[in-house]
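name: query_chain
kind: protein
chains: 1
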Amino acid sequence: MKKVFTLLMALLMFAFLSSCTFSQASAPQLNKQAISIEKGKSYKLKLKGADSGKVKWISKNKNIATVKNGKVTARQAGSTKIIAKYKGKKYSCKVKVMDSTITQPQIDEVQTSDLVLTVDGIKLDVEWENNKSVEALKSLAPLTINTQQYGGFEQVGDIGSSLPQDDSNITTQAGDIVLYSSNSISIFYDSNTWSYTRLGKITGKTQAELKELLGKDRVTVSITRAENKEKIMVVYFSQTGRTKKIAEKISEITGGEIQRILPADPYTDEDLDYNDSSTRATVEQNDLSVRPEIKNKISLSGCTTLYLGYPIWWGQAPRIMDTFVEEYDLSGITIIPFCTSGSSSIGGSANRLEELAGAGSWKPGKRFSTGASADDIRIWTESF
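structure:
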């Protein structure tokens, strides 16, 4: 009897400890409890330790920020909360949305257009319109226009060519750049009402500063194309070396900086046994919520184009690629996926990664065989 009692106590203690360990290991948590983002931008929230397909996302104020599949998009300045509901529990993140604040250093680094405007040698920051007139102006650059002051509110000069017009009655403000009579450009330092086509607006200058610059009898206006600041990177995961070979060829052809994703817990050959349902890779690929840890830090600083490579495992991208696209902000980057496999196509693997990332401009992906030639890869990269 004493032995039975001791055995029962041991079993109860084991069950208690097991439940504690399980609850600690499986407790979901948000990757962020508070975020601040500018109006118009997005941030990807993730509920770690949860099946992403079963998480319900809710915004307490959709006027300030909306959320879809964890992707928070800022709508207007203010504060709200994003709620993740999972298995009857709620997890909240405070969201603060700020008005866009563009400082001079930021504008120098990120051009809003590939046109650069200078007046008497002084570079001005401009938000150009997206219309046919501006496109035609780009085709004429570089341009030098000698302008003269008119009416006490503008500098006006002949472009030397006629541009497409879409005139409307406009009351201009200081900093406005417009097309007048199809062949003249006007830059305002005060207001006037007339029929114009908008070309852009000078930012970062007060009316007094613009009047000092533009209130002279004559100025010289220069419009040029901005330097191409494209930065290409090649980031890949490779276990057997096949994807590594393709990634290295892409790097050589494009001049892109190359980086390899390394798992914190390295895979072995036994882990990749397709014929054993208990192997690590098989278990991971059958569980959409698994996120293997990445050992190394991948730098995407300044990246504009990202070639993202991986092998196909069990018809999908390895789960460590899910980790990568969820942990790294791909906003403003063009992502070009590629994969290697014996026979499987890239299929929906790239579409899943795009959905998980919730950011970036994704291009159609391509599968390469191990023996793909440099010419095949060059033709593909040049298509972008």
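note: The chain has three domains: 29-98, 112-225, 232-382.
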